[in-house]
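Two proteins follow. First one:
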Amino acid sequence: MFTSVAIIGRPNVGKSSLFNKLTKSRDAIVSDFPGLTKDRNYGFLNLDDNKILIIDTGGIVNESDNLKEAISNQAWSAVEESSFIILMLDSSENLTKDDLDILHKLRKFNKDYVIVLNKVDKKTDSLIKNDLQKEGIHSAIEISAEHSKNLSSLKSCIKERATNIKKTIYDGKKVAVLGRPNAGKSTFINNLIDQDRLIVSEIAGTTIDSIQIPFEFDNEKFIFIDTAGIRKGYKYHHKVEYFSYVRTLHSIDQSDVVIFICDATEGLVDQDLKILNMIIDSGKPILFLFNKIDLLSKKDLSKIYTTKKMQSDFMSNIFVLEMSAIQKKGFKKIFNSTNKLIEKSKKKYTTSQLNKHLREFVELNSPPSVKGRQLKFKHVHFGGTFPTTLIVHANQDKKIPQNYKRYLINSFRDALELKSVQLRLLFRKADNPYKDKKNILSERQVKKRKRLIKHIKSSKK
């Protein structure tokens, strides 16, 4: 049964460029810098009414380096789970030893595959076609992924193989996993799904792209998005690191909830707070996890909670859980909390319910006067999700004191149980329903008014 297409090849032949073109996305980072793609990345190619799963892989090399070997193993795992393989070669160069090694190993898998020659727009004296003929390959699809040249021929080739497509479309709750480099994000996801799906290394920054992983837990579908660790000074380092940050922002925007992982052995640092602020600005709910608690004693762990950063009002509005990703501790509690946060963040509130709470808050703490005018709140209604937005109508909108705004926000958060869910109050000046209406007197009222004026004048004489 045809299920997916894997794109493989040595580094820098254009696999990620082709992946982006086929899936009509920018889910894979593209650069002249070789070796960017490290983990498998998934996306969908739409052909007529069918969705075909496309898998982008890292460059395969024959080197003893542990990280490069892990990247190659990930690519071959993608070959195993796919029914059709695209072996991508650089047509501007002759066939290399790495290309031949990949081709020979691919043939041992007994999988249906096609040779794709990329970068045909480059003028070179390459003899790659002659080299392929010596290997018994007499046909290949020539494309330029960067300039979308001849992609229709490749799509037609995929369509021919896809006569029996298994219509499996991954749909589920999207969970973005964020944190600083080496906090344990990839280890958490790998142990959660019981697969070596993501490369784990002590080298900080191994994950540089946002990788989506479909997963089921207790008959519920999830899509985990493993993101690059955001380090201090990302804007000023290599451009790849900055694009990783941009991809992380995009992942937050796509998600229903964000799991933030903090290294408990280092505690909460300023960079963690910056990332948390970024999530809060996006309006998405946050679940904060302390990882690596297996490396700390109970005394050391309790000290973390007594620090100024953890005692701040900022952290008091966020759910904090503990886990050990490597020992799989705390996973069930994480899932239960994740589900509750998603439900809360998507909940809509009735106007009557909100107005009842507003009246209670105003009675408990009367609003102050603003420039001699008593501040009056007319009504409140629901305005949207991500963040949960409430629109409050009052006789003032721009002159409401900040401390009273905070009082209302905290009161609504407690009453609606919105801890870890972002809440925003928008204040609008209530319109006077009679401001455009003139008080027109009847003929009888006009006569009465004249008599009254005449009477007042005569009494003054």
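Second one, unrelated to the first:
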Amino acid sequence: MEKFTHVLLWATASIFSPLQLKIMKKLYSICLFLVVCTALGAQAPGSWTALGSGITAAPRDFLGIDAVSADVAWGLAEHPTFAVGAREFCRTVDGGATWQTGVIDAANGGAFTSLAIYALDAETAWVIMTNVPTQNRGKIYKTTNGGQTWQEQTGSFNNIGSAIAFIHFFDADNGLAIGSPGTGNPATDSLRIWKTSNGGDIWNRIPPEQLPTPLASEGFWITSGNGHYAAVGNKIWFGTRRGRIWYSPDKGENWQVFALSSQNITNMSFSITFSDEQNGIAAGYGIAFRTNDGGQTWTPLTSLPASIVYYRVQYVPGANGVCYLTYEGSQSFFNQYRHAYSLNNGDTWTLIADQPRLLPFEFVSPTVGWGGGDIDGPDGKGMYRWSGNFGPASALQAPETAFSPRVFPNPFHNQMLLEFDIEDNSLPLNITVSDLFGRTIQTFQFSRLHPGLNQLPLQVEAPPGMLLLTLRQGGRVQTVKVVRE
């Protein structure tokens, strides 16, 4: 769903796996970039609120999440050592007020652990797993009933020597699963890509001869998929351990590879984000780059706060040029999670004090984001929700109030039925259809509504893919993701 993205695990030599780094917390010394920040310890235009998760297993924290809308979000738990299998998930459909929980394939015992999730809507989602501690086999599970049941999907990723780092679907049918063994094994053909055109019923590996030639050890540390990749429409980008960006303009049919730097970058991974088809940021182990030509060329981005590792960076959808960043504030891994944001495409950054230890996070709009951290009982810490505004100042007076929108069918072809609730029918309702980066595609206005339940048929003229449907009435605003087939 750009879907990293979660915590990225980093290494400085192929002899260290993410598991070893996490357990040993080995100290690393590196040369840090000079930073230019607008303020230190400044208060962001919003805050994170812990909402619990409903998960009772312990110890656990969140490794992967996927946010569908302001109301709907999914989360995956891991064991903090990354050596014990964990398959708990949670889901909310009411903005975090209540949580549904469960275990994916409990019969697997401790052999496999969940890594990342891609959620199409409130009912349909795919989860990837890897075996622990070996990290050289993959699994994919799918649910179509909100997690009540999960079906395992099969492919050559089940074979020893394969694994999946992240999964992305462009629509209900067409998806990619991309990964490699997570141990840094210097096999030339370590990176693998699988495709499906029927929702995962059949996964076919793209033959190596149809792909650019991977470098030795070019693959991924097998960790959460949040932030591992970025997708805009049919285009997708991801970064590898060897500091290269792989790019497909057409849902994975064709691929190109771009170098981040002329220097030989080894043994690192990158969180990557794009605001549109041209402008993106890739940040990883102590270094970051920016592109304005779709990833063909990259220039060093030295304005980020100094850190040994940038865990996750994401452009905020619908907020022009706004990026959010989590990074390591100490000289060892997983000790001091810190946050910063930029309002100008990364030219300058504002550091945010006293923030929770979020591993994965994902914004769905300028006003709403979701994050996952340490789980402290079913009602304590766990899943977090960002409330605030990264949009225009005037929008600060338009706090989000639930319309509880429902779309049928979703995915839809040309026409959808929008169902929602309102209390006051004295003001018109404005509906905006936009892409994932806030670019308006179509608008509607309705005046003759009535209190309570309303149903509106909408004829949507938009290209296939994920869309944002935003409802506005007076000071009430709410956004939900929909998919046009």
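SUMMARY FIELD: The mean pLDDT is 83. The domain at 18-393 is CATH 2.130.10.10 (Methylamine Dehydrogenase; Chain H).
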